[in-house]
Amino acid sequence: MLQDNQIEGQELSESLRVLRAIRQIVTDDLLPSDGRLPTERRLAMDLGASRRSVRYALDQLEAEGLVWRKQGKGTFVGQPPDPTEELAAKIVSEVDPLTAMEARLCIEPALADLCARRATADDVALLRQLADRTHEAGEAEAAELWDGALHRAIARIAGNRVMLTAFTLIDEVRMGEEWRRKRHRARTPETRAAYDDQHSRIIDAINARDGAAAAEAMRDHLNVLFSNLKTSLEKERR
């Protein structure tokens, strides 16, 4: 007969296995066009796991901002619909990438400041996990996914609904396919390494509960992004 700690160890191992498997499904975009995941029952059957392990994995992915749930509808990849989405769709053709970066420079340092003042130890652990995922991502699409999840988590932890709505609007505007292509072109192994270091600085300042340092680190990070994007766009026009 298994001891309690052996049972707990087996459950943890299964939960981690299921988490890795579902995360792979999400990050590799192995889903229908509506982005809906199979039901918990279906995932449990396909992965040979308990529904409890599947539920744990989905809870973790939801906390990371990679999936969202709607009662009676299911679990979907990405962020839940926001009222700003319709407005973003209306103005996206009128806003160029550099204008969006200017808006990010106004909003995100302040969000990083608030995040440092309000983050819990669990929040910091999540931010470090997302930064690690960004660093480990092999493909540009996956790196973009995890990078976006990190910035959204900082905005959410900041706890200011008005500023979060402003951030979400900017994020929706910049998620168009053409804009993603331009950002990918601006990413190189060298810039990705620099971004990893900058993410670490931001999170270290948040962990130290130093709002001013977090804002400064975020501003430095966005300025580098701004400069790299501007250079890439100028090369594209030549």
Automatic annotation (TrEMBL):
Protein's name according to its UniProt entry: FCD domain-containing protein
Record has Transcription as a keyword: yes
SUPFAM superfamilies: GntR ligand-binding domain-like (SSF48008), Winged helix' DNA-binding domain (SSF46785)
Highest rank taxon of the organism: Bacteria
Lineage: Bacteria, Pseudomonadati, Pseudomonadota, Alphaproteobacteria, Rhodobacterales
Record's keyword annotation contains DNA-binding: yes
Alphabetical UniProt keywords: DNA-binding, Transcription, Transcription regulation
Pfam families: FCD, GntR
